[in-house]
Amino acid sequence: MQVNFNIAYKDLVGIVKQLPVSELKKLNTTIINEINVKTQSKVTDLQSLILKAPTWTDAEYNEYQSVREHFNKSRLA
Fold it and tell me: With 60 as the cut, is the pLDDT of residue 49 above it?
């Protein structure tokens, strides 16, 4: 079951200020855990993207280096 609320930030702050200290501690723990989960998923997404990226073989890289060297030598100074 998914429930969506459209609460303005200002209203949310007002609700949070009404909570007792014990509930604030629980909320703080929950928010920190949620931040960690979302941050970790972004890192994992970036890592998987990098790992799936195409790579050059040694021959392709050496060819690129030789062409790059040729370009650098042929440019007007």
Answer: yes
